[in-house]
Amino acid sequence: MKKTLLPSTIAVALAILAGPVTADTVKISGASTVFAAVVSSGKAAVEKSTGHTLQLVSSNSGKGLADLASGAADIAMVSEPLDVSAPLAEVAGTKIDAKAVQFFELKKDEIVFIVHPSNPVGKLTPEQLGGILSGKIGNWKEVGGMDKAIAVYGEGPTAGTRAMIKKLLLSGAEFTSGLKAQSSIKRVAELVAGDEAGIAGVGRNFVEAGKTKAVASKKFERPLALATLGAPKPAAKAVIDAYTKEAKTL
């Protein structure tokens, strides 16, 4: 008697022939702005759609690229163009060949300058911002505010937002020697929220209504991206593609 294979039996046989579907752990490290704006919020959806497990480390662009170069990460999060972020890897301790890095932009972001809600200053020109960040303008009364010394907050030297601000407003020069450098952009925003004299440049998503306000100025835009060293491996490519799709909804 001729036997007829059931559809379920055929499906199992085909799956065996095709080989097992492997679920990998993909390590992503780098810019806290990219982490906060896209990667953290999209984690569950990306894991579900790709079948891969994500291991996330939020730090800064320089550390992310250094981890990529050393093999500690499969994907780096960067919050500025590669010509700005690549040199930060060496500052973080591991040099990376920028020509070998593949850059996958997720979305555009805006750097804004936040102050305490009680600060009467509502608008600053790029020239005024440059003067404040460099220390040439040291009191709020010089830009129409209160008679109080300005407290400039920012991240450490491996941070992408800090590097981008240096390029945009300081022509590559350093911040004031009085810069209150912090370990993360989130901490920077928290400190400005508690300091009536504070100011800092942060990603738009770090502005928290009622705790800080963004002063009006020129629009300072930069890309938020994922990066790999050479062509991404299949698991990393699947994750990047999923995040690219997810970023459009955020």
- Using the coordinates above, name the CATH class of the largest domain: Alpha Beta
User: What do the pLDDT scores average to?
Assistant: 92
- Principal-axes geometry comes out as elongated
The number of helical runs is: 8
Terminal CA distance? 60 Å
- Poorly predicted parts: 1-21
**CA-atom Rg in angstroms:** 22 Å
Q: Give the helix/strand class.
A: alpha/beta
Q: How many E strands?
A: 9
Provide the CATH architecture of the largest domain.
3-Layer(aba) Sandwich
The main pleated sheet reads as: 9 strands, mixed
Number of domains: 2
Q: What is the H level of CATH, i.e. the homologous superfamily of the largest domain?
A: Periplasmic binding protein-like II
The helix fraction, in percent, is 25-40%
In what range is the share of β-strand residues?
Answer: 15-25%
In N-to-C order, the SSE pattern is: HEHEHEHEHEHEHEEEH
Write down the CATH topology of the largest domain. Answer: D-Maltodextrin-Binding Protein, domain 2
Structure description:
This protein has helices spanning 7-18, 32-50, 61-70, 82-91, 126-134, 160-169, 185-193, 234-247, and strands at 25-31, 53-59, 75-78, 101-115, 151-155, 180-182, 198-203, 213-214, 220-229. With 250 residues, the protein is α/β, with parallel strands linked by helices. The protein has 2 domains: 25-108 and 223-247, 3-Layer(aba) Sandwich (D-Maltodextrin-Binding Protein, domain 2), CATH 3.40.190; 110-222, D-Maltodextrin-Binding Protein, domain 2, CATH 3.40.190. Strands 1, 2, 3, 4, 5, 6, 7, 8 and 9 form a 9-stranded mixed β-sheet that branches. α6 links the parallel β5 and β6. α2 (32-50) crosses α8 and α3 crosses α4.
